[in-house]
Design goal:
Jelly Rolls, 7-stranded antiparallel beta sheet, 1 helix, 10% helix, 52% strand
Length: 192
């Protein structure tokens, strides 16, 4: 009986380790898991499993620019890290991004392409708000969070627990989960 109990405990620990390290499903790039998540690829996207699409908080350690750079479809460059809310799919979601270079800010935008799921490219973006902030220095830590009221779309965006913006987000998809997005930024992060 003691051996069976030890065996079951080992299985439970393995399952717990598996579920903790698989909280994020990578949809683009590479998101490494250990005791914390890590991203070093020029482009990464991931979805958080079993999490409300109306809120997310990430504790982020900024490690600098990626070794290789990736331009956007229009040829522009952006180094950024942020949250995906109400993430129905890659074509319909809300972004809250900490833009690092070239114009340091926190931006809130909606990507809306009704009827499309993954063939929209860079179409359907509407900028809601951009708030200038200082770019993080390499090795620094910050917390980026956002929450949306499920009935009114009132959105509250915080940086280091200070409210940066509160307002309505029109055209926001209903339903969907939460996730993370990076472009050209190396980070370590934890979900909160």
């Amino acid at each position: 009986m003691k051996k069976i109990s030890k065996y079951l405990s080992a299985i439970a620990l393995s399952f717990l380790s598996l579920s903790v390290s698989s909280q994020i499903v990578t949809t683009n790039g590479k998101i490494s898991t250990a005791s914390i998540y890590s991203i070093e690829t020029p482009s990464a996207r991931g979805n958080v499993l079993y999490h409300s699409g109306d809120n997310l908080e990430l504790a982020i350690q900024y490690l600098g620019s990626t070794d290789t750079k990736q331009l956007f479809a229009d040829g522009s460059f952006q180094e950024q890290v942020g949250l995906k809310l109400r993430n129905l799919n890659e074509c319909n979601l809300v972004y809250v991004m900490r833009r690092i270079r070239p114009n340091p800010s926190v931006s809130i935008s909606v990507k809306s392409n009704p009827g499309l799921t993954n063939t929209c490219g860079d179409k359907g973006y509407t900028m809601i708000k951009s708030i200038p902030v200082t770019a993080p220095i390499i090795g620094s830590n910050f917390v980026l969070s956002a929450s949306m009221d499920p009935t009114t779309n009132l959105t509250i965006v915080k940086l280091d627990n200070k409210i940066l913006w509160a307002g309505g987000v029109p055209f926001a998809a209903n339903g969907g989960g939460a996730g993370i997005r990076t472009d050209n930024a190396k980070i370590n992060f934890t979900l909160r």
